[in-house]
Amino acid sequence: MRLRNKPWAVKLVQEHPESVLDRPDPEKQIDWSQRFADCSRPLEIEVGSGKGHFITTLAEQNPDKNFVALELQVTAAGMILRTKLEKKLDNLQILCADAADITAFFAANSADTLYLNFSDPWPKTKHEKRRLTYKTFLEKYKKILKPGGQIEFKTDNSGLFSYSVASMNNYGMHFDFVSVDLHHENEEIVAKNIETEYEHKFAAKGNPIYALHADFGVE
Ligand code: SAM
């Protein structure tokens, strides 16, 4: 999804370097201790946050954890930033960058959970390598996640879901939770779920939402 360029969003990002890392140099390490009050707290990352409803809600509900919204588009980063400022979310940082460089931005074994929500499906076989659950991405996620750290993935796209299950399974990942209709799981699961913008749109059309939680095991 490409968002139409919003000049206000670009300007807001430029005005808030303390909250947004705007296309940082992947050759330089990021010192997260300068950006979070307490780096000993659990770290959770959403890859491809879009307009940010999911990650800003999660950050609001969990003031005892640190969150990073990793998003390619600067307009989307500006929209997440606007909510972060409105809600005064000191535990949320925005990283405007390509997930392909994720291992440059986070230390090995530093993240507890990684969220992939409604990632672009890239349905053509020739674009397989761009899917955020392709094996080269899994390899990178494995590096930055702590042992036992989880990937939580949601999509309405059955093709991307079955591809991702196979890709994770081939990578030797363990599945802790799998649903082919998340919105009709038991009450507790449904109540805990935070909808993303895409999820809201597709669920309203009656599409089932697929979800899984998986980990790389503890070596
Ligand atoms: N997660 C949001 C939701 O569920 O509403 C947005 C979903 S949208 C289909 C996918 C988002 O991922 C877009 O905002 C896009 O810019 C971002 N994205 C795609 N590829 C990315 C990458 N390689 N690195 C970071 N973000 C990426």
Overall description:
The protein has a single domain, classed as 3-Layer(aba) Sandwich (Rossmann fold), CATH 3.40.50. With 219 residues, the protein is an alpha/beta fold. The radius of gyration is 17 Å and the shape is globular. Helix 5 (135-144) links the parallel strand 5 (111-117) and strand 6 (145-155). The protein is built from eight helices and eight strands. Strands 1-4-3-2-5-6-8-7 form an eight-stranded mixed beta sheet, sandwiched between helices. Helix 1 (7-15) packs across helix 3. The protein has helices at 7-15, 53-61, 74-87, 102-105, 135-144, 158-170, 187-192, 197-204, and strands at 20-22, 43-47, 66-71, 92-96, 111-117, 145-155, 174-179, 210-215. 38% of the residues are buried. The longest helix has 14 residues, at 74-87. The structure holds S-adenosylmethionine. S-adenosylmethionine binds at residues 1, 47-50, 70-73, 76, 98-100, 117-120, 196-199.
Average pLDDT for all residues: 97
Total domains, how many? 1
Structural class: alpha/beta
Q: How is the largest sheet built, in terms of strand order?
A: 1-4-3-2-5-6-8-7
| Poorly predicted runs | none
Q: Give the N-terminus to C-terminus distance in angstroms.
A: 37 Å
The CATH architecture comes to 3-Layer(aba) Sandwich
Query: Main sheet, how many strands, which sense, barrel?
Result: 8 strands, mixed
Secondary-structure element order, as H and E? HEEHEHEHEHEHEHHE
CA radius of gyration is 17 Å
Summed up, the helix count is 8
Overall number of strands? 8
Shape: globular
Q: Would you give the CATH topology?
A: Rossmann fold
What's the CATH C level?
A: Alpha Beta
The hetero compounds bound to this protein are: S-adenosylmethionine
Percent helix, as a range, is 25-40%
User: CATH homologous superfamily, by name?
Assistant: Vaccinia Virus protein VP39
